[in-house]
Structure formats: C-alpha cells, structure tokens
C-alpha cells in the first residue's frame, strides 16, 4: 500500500505560503512538490472550502493563507484533506465467520481506534505556528554553522 503524503505535503506548502510576500501560483507550488498544478488546485480547493487558504484569479493571483498559522492545527489540515487513513495496517475480513478472526479483529480495531484518537489529539495540539517556529530554529542553527 502506498503511503498518503498529502498531509505532510500540504503542511509544507502552508508554511512556505506564510513565508511569501504574496500569493503562490499553482504552478509554483506544483514545482515545489514535484507534482502537477491540477493536483495542487484540487487539493488546495478542499483547504479553501474549510477556510484555511484563499485563491485569487488573474495577474498577481494565486493561493495564500486565509488564517494565521496559530489558528490552524495539523489535525485541521488532516480533516480538510478528508481525514486520510492514519495507519497502513488493518484487520482482515477473509474469514468473517471464523471466531479467531473475529477476536483478532476486535482487539485490533479497539487498539487502532485508541491509537487514532491519541494521534488526532496530538495533531490537534500542534499548530502550524509551532512547525514554523521549529523551521526557524533549524534555519538559524544551520546558518550559524561554519
């Protein structure tokens, strides 16, 4: 199963948007992510619907943040991306009548639900501003090295 990197990629884009003086075009963002501008527009449209970004058409147009980084959590963006699966592992349903499979699936489902709730709570506690501050610290350390 292929990993879903949309959350990571959109967080990356949003931090860059905050650093820009103006709007970023779909083409610029696509180049940053090594993808197609259509994919960028489709993905950012979902974020726009949730009020995290805005788009302007025409000369000087593009995508920009609609909220401050402090007002956006990592979980907010996860939800705006239609809550992609957090875990690649899952229970099997090959033998639905098998009592062993039922017991295994019940244990796994319970554990996955608890882990997902804990992860979402953690993502909810991290703002994009927290990530931007970490980026700034890393940039300062890198520039201070000889």
Automatic annotation (TrEMBL):
InterPro entries: Tscrpt_reg_Rrf2 (IPR000944), WH-like_DNA-bd_sf (IPR036388), WH_DNA-bd_sf (IPR036390). It comes from the Bacteria. Pfam families: Rrf2 (PF02082). This is Rrf2 family transcriptional regulator. It comes from Tahibacter harae.
């Amino acid at each position: 199963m292929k990993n879903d990197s949309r959350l990571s990629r959109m967080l990356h884009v949003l931090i860059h948007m905050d650093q820009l003086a103006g709007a970023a075009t779909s083409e610029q963002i696509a180049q940053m992510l090594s993808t197609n501008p259509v994919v960028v527009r489709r993905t950012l449209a979902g974020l726009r619907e949730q009020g995290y970004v805005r788009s302007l058409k025409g000369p000087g147009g593009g995508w920009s943040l609609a909220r401050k980084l402090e007002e956006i959590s990592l979980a907010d963006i996860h939800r705006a991306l239609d809550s992609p699966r957090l875990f690649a592992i899952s229970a099997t349903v090959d033998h639905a009548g098998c009592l062993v499979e039922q017991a295994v699936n019940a244990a796994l489902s319970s554990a996955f639900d608890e882990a997902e709730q804990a992860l979402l709570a953690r993502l909810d506690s991290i703002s994009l501003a927290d990530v931007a501050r970490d980026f700034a610290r890393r940039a300062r350390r890198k520039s201070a090295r000889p």
